[in-house]
What does this fold into?
Amino acid sequence: DQQVKQNSPSLSVQEGRISILNCDYTNSMFDYFLWYKKYPAEGPTFLISISSIKDKNEDGRFTVFLNKSAKHLSLHIVPSQPGDSAVYFCAASADDYKLSFGAGTTVTVRA
Amino acid sequence: EAQVTQNPRYLITVTGKKLTVTCSQNMNHEYMSWYRQDPGLGLRQIYYSMNVEVTDKGDVPEGYKVSRKEKRNFPLILESPSPNQTSLYFCASHGRGGLYNEQFFGPGTRLTVL
It folds into this structure.
């Protein structure tokens, strides 16, 4: 049973607009959350993370929001650029060595 | 250049023929993991290692073996591959204290078992 869920398999957005990716989790022991980005034929690369003691973390165009009571997090990309077209994975952990991933959301940024 | 390497990148084999996928990292990381990626399921952890000679099962360990005899290497062994092990495999590593911010993934190995 997947403990991290990304219910939107795909997202299409116009260049310059905001992309919002959503992620839900079921395990209340998760205390660290991450987003990874993956291009075809490459391994995932770390994008941004947030600890459960925070509700927001920002890094340039990328912001992650965490709502612990709802067990929900989201990734905002503003403004979206063509190079942002990729698969985005949400992940969560409760310790140093196990990560649980969502199924991924494919983002397509239209010119 | 800091990196995780995997070999082979592509492999087609037949049911029951033992195979090994190698993984090596040059960052002196303590932690290493193997994942498989399947459509609609994301990445699922197969095995992980916290240091030399210390390994443990992830979420989907059935049909796989690993070993960690050296810090830099973490091979994945399929003793008797079956078609349901057809997947895209990733090796990853990160250092102690770095949490997952510094987790590096290899480029992936696409395995097809006929």
Q: What stands out?
A: The CA atoms of residues 23 and 97 of chain A lie 21 Å apart. The mean pLDDT of chain A is 95.
